[in-house]
Amino acid sequence: MVKFVASSLAALVLTVATIQAQSTTTAAAATTKTTTSAAAATTTTTTWPAANQVPPTNSAEVQAWLKEIDLTGAPDIELHKGDPPSCPNPPIANECYWTCDGCSDDDIVSCARPNTWGLTFDDGPSTDTPTLLTYLKGQNLAASFFLIGSNVVQYPEIVKQEVAEGHHLASHTWSHHALTTLTNEQIVAEMRWTEKAVMEYTGLKLKYMRPPYGDINARVRFVLKKLGYIPVDWTGDEFDTNDWQMPTMSESTVISTFTKSLDTYAASNKTTGFYCLEHDLNNLTVGVAQKIIPLGLARNITIAPIPVCESDASPYQNSNTATTTTAATNGTTATSTSANQSATSSSTSGNQANQGKTSGAESRVAGSALSAIAGAAVAGLLLA
Ligand SMILES: *[C@@H]1O[C@H](CO)[C@@H](O)[C@H](O)[C@H]1NC(C)=O
Ligand SMILES: *[C@@H]1O[C@H](CO)[C@@H](O)[C@H](O)[C@H]1NC(C)=O
Ligand SMILES: *[C@@H]1O[C@H](CO)[C@@H](O)[C@H](O)[C@H]1NC(C)=O
Ligand SMILES: *[C@@H]1O[C@H](CO)[C@@H](O)[C@H](O)[C@H]1NC(C)=O
Ligand SMILES: *[C@@H]1O[C@H](CO)[C@@H](O)[C@H](O)[C@H]1NC(C)=O
Ligand SMILES: [Zn+2]
Known about the structure:
disordered N terminus, Chitin deacetylase, NODB_dom, Glyco_hydro/deAcase_b/a-brl, 44% helix, single chain, Polysacc_deacetylase_ArnD, binds zinc ion, binds 2-acetamido-2-deoxy-beta-D-glucopyranose, TIM Barrel, globular, metal ion binding, mainly alpha
């Protein structure tokens, strides 16, 4: 096992080194762009929508985005109410509503790679994210970060750091509202504003997304697909760490519950991996991540971001000519990718079933708002 860990670390070190070399190029390109814009002195800086609110759909930007796609044929399913909504009673036929009937259609729910923990963190970036990044760097681990657009524009340097350190970026919407409660046009606004923010700071066009609260049905999927997104849910209740419930739920409960899930998994045939639900939301969630990751490594479970789980050499929508590095040692594979720089600069310059309870556990509070909310209030929401 020691040997295994050592060789997998070596593979990841190679990957990180490659990404660092690539990000130097990105930084250089970005500098050039900025200089050019400054010289022209006509470029207006982007005015972002209000934080943590569904962006208006009547803005020039959203109207232009709506013209780019054809939403005809979107399933006509009534909007749900509540944030997150409760399950419709009676159920809506053929809705394929993951959090209520467990129907995932072609959403990704498990890491495709055997014996692998698909490491993902939702709701960031936050002021506690750098602590997590330091830890992951020390362990030579890479993760996928499901970013909230409102937080991206608040902490763009942290997002850049995530890319520079070899992590993978994905979308968790602009304002963290339940998507089945939003109109098709509002979903477009949520996704494209987040995409634009990440594009502006990193040059990467996001491709994977996780619906807030796991709240996704056939209508939401239809719109996401038109926008080029692949939804990634998670591998069921037992892989929801419930980290966001701290401090109402004690850290020791979070750890002991998740340990049982790891033991069950380690005793299984492990032919597919799993995605777990974790958050880089605050001091507590970042703290517990550093305690549970070693429990996975101790059980010889490989830890990897989405591109490695899914063997996706193009984990961004604009990585068609991506540089991919693959290092494999005894079954451990690490893949890294960089965006097509040409595509980058041109875009930038344009300036109650099983999962029902799980979905309740997906953090209901976007980013910075959480710290203002007492644990008791959060627990109250869970019961709502
Ligand atoms: C660890 O996992 C790898 C594959 O992920 C496997 O090849 C190896 O045999 C495992 N080692 C132990 C000690 O279980
Ligand atoms: C491994 O386990 C899963 C579910 O536990 C089962 O569906 C699958 O058939 C098993 N695969 C093998 C190769 O035994
Ligand atoms: C959380 O905050 C406490 C008190 O400021 C600090 O001692 C601890 O190191 C922090 N933990 C993490 C994981 O940042
Ligand atoms: C790969 O695994 C085999 C058998 O477990 C071992 O003999 C070999 O040394 C390993 N290779 C590396 C590079 O760790
Ligand atoms: C990058 O992508 C753009 C747009 O998709 C394409 O026109 C260009 O040829 C690509 N660049 C390279 C180096 O392949
Ligand atoms: Zn979330």
